[in-house]
Structure to design on (225 residues):
């Protein structure tokens, strides 16, 4: 039997089982993960109490709470940059930079007409937004849908706010012959990622803030190339 020591334990863990015969991709991911985790433990010389803290953290992050019904594992992958890294790795577009869709997109936003108002918010500051969808040669692309969604002037999406009707500050606009779209809306407020749980505590301990800059989401639907 192989002696387990600092320099043999990683190979000992990896070389168990059928070594990827039945599930090669799983084995590839598993072996790489084990190697990196072991290297990480060696590098920082993780102590037993730190390991226990890490276990407690992951345990808490996986709990389903009223505020975050799905738990914080997804949030954690976002905060660690892993979600965006996977996006950047696999969705390589020429032209517009790639970005995460996020959890607040819905696929059935109301279809609106050129110049329409995107949503109602009596306290918001109105502004008009227009743009053009162009191909890589700068030529307009007509008849594609520009799917837009944003929070209101309080930083809340319709899904998070019972005072807003469904579809408020969401809309799909079809581009005209010049590739143009245009709508009226209010200035959105930036919002915080959920920060009342263990992920928020981690941000605080690291001196990171939970705020996202005020933004409007755009997704172009119907491109054939
Ligand atoms: Fe957003």
């Amino acid at each position: 039997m192989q002696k387990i020591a600092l320099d043999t334990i990683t190979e000992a863990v990896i070389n168990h089982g059928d070594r990827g015969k039945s599930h090669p991709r799983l084995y590839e991911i598993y072996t790489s993960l084990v190697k990196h985790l072991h290297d990480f433990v060696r590098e920082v010389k993780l102590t037993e109490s730190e390991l226990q803290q890490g276990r407690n953290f992951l345990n808490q992050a996986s709990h389903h709470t009223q505020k975050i019904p799905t738990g914080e594992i997804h949030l954690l992958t976002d905060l660690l940059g892993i979600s965006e890294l996977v996006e950047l790795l696999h969705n390589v577009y020429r032209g517009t930079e790639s970005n995460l869709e996020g959890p607040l997109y819905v696929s059935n936003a109301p279809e609106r007409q050129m110049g329409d108002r995107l949503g109602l918010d009596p306290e918001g500051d109105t502004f008009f937004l227009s743009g053009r969808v162009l191909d890589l040669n700068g030529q307009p692309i007509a008849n594609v849908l520009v799917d837009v969604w944003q929070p209101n002037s309080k930083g809340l999406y319709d899904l998070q706010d019972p005072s807003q009707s469904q579809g408020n500050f969401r809309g799909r606009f079809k581009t005209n012959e010049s590739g143009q779209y245009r709508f009226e809306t209010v200035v959105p407020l930036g919002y915080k990622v959920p920060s009342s749980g263990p992920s928020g505590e981690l941000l605080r301990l690291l001196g990171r803030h939970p705020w996202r800059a005020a933004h409007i989401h755009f997704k172009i639907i119907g491109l054939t190339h």
Observations:
- Residues 102, 104, 215, 217 surround fe (ii) ion (CB under 6 Å).
- The first helix runs from residue 9 to 14.
- Strands lie at 111-112, 126-132, 145-149, 170-174, 180-186, 217-221.
- The chain has six helices and six strands.
